[in-house]
Amino acid sequence: DTEVTQTPKHLVMGMTNKKSLKCEQHMGHRAMYWYKQKAKKPPELMFVYSYEKLSINESVPSRFSPECPNSSLLNLHLHALQPEDSALYLCASSHPGGRGPQGRGTDTQYFGPGTRLTVL
Amino acid sequence: AQSVAQPEDQVNVAEGNPLTVKCTYSVSGNPYLFWYVQYPNRGLQFLLKYITGDNLVKGSYGFEAEFNKSQTSFHLKKPSALVSDSALYFCAVRDNAMNYGGATNKLIFGTGTLLAVQP
């Protein structure tokens, strides 16, 4: 099973709201990722968690706050977003580099269906 | 700098004809290359990857890709296109330049190629 689930599918929020995006996987992966994707553009990496610790933050504004409560769950907390933050937010998971069955850095990232976020 | 290029924004092909979606790369060290497909309003689906071994890699849904080291290319191919193959295709390469201390699976994506298969 290579399934990554994300909730909600769609989210509309005002600039003063606080909301959270959720991601879950049960593939035993210990690396989880958040990406932001604008229409017809490639995904842009935001955060990477490896063994439940934040290992990459791609200079994301503090209005986005990631959280990895356990090895299967990844959250993205949203607060005071701007209209330009409207996008498809994708979660992915993989074995971390050097820990997968096929060796260092070779393991595939599996993506969830995404949450379509609209900020009004 | 490491990079991936997909020179065609869009590829048009008639159903039943062979298709090719082009990708070239520039990386330090060994290239680890991936193809993903994205249908409208969906996440990315993994198609295939090249790590080492045979230059011809077979993947999902009848797709294959040919790794060419001398031309630094990893073109995606399918012998007979289906209308249902119409989607956005991304080539990606693992970022070998940085050591992220255990999470070294950062991918560098190409800009994407929209494949349109006409019936």
Outline of chain B, from the CA principal axes?
globular
Rg of chain B (C-alpha, Å): 14 Å
Report the β-strand fraction of chain B as a percent range. Answer: over 45%
Assembly of the depicted chains: heterodimer
Class derived from helix and strand content of chain A:
mainly beta
Form type of chain A: globular
Mean pLDDT of chain B: 91
Stretches of chain B where pLDDT falls below 50 for ≥5 residues? Answer: none
Keywords:
heterodimer, A: 120 residues, mainly beta, seven-stranded mixed sheet, four-stranded antiparallel sheet, 0% helix, globular, B: 119 residues, six-stranded mixed sheet
What can you see in these coordinates?
The complex is a heterodimer of chains A (120) and B (119). The model of chain A has no long low-confidence stretch (mean pLDDT 90). Chain A has strands at residues 4-7, 10-13, 18-25, 31-37, 44-50, 53-57, 64-70, 73-79, 87-94, 110-111, 115-119. In chain A, strand 5 and strand 6 form a beta hairpin. By secondary structure, chain A is mainly beta. The termini of chain A are far apart. With 119 residues, chain B is mainly β. In chain B, strands 2, 5, 6, 10, 11 and 12 form a six-stranded mixed beta sheet that branches. A four-stranded antiparallel beta sheet of chain B has the order 3-9-8-7, with no helix packed on it. Chain B has a two-stranded antiparallel ribbon with strand order 1-4. Chain B is globular, with a radius of gyration of 14 Å. The model of chain B has no long low-confidence stretch (mean pLDDT 91). At the A-B interface, strand 5, strand 9 and strand 10 of A face strand 6 and strand 10 of B.
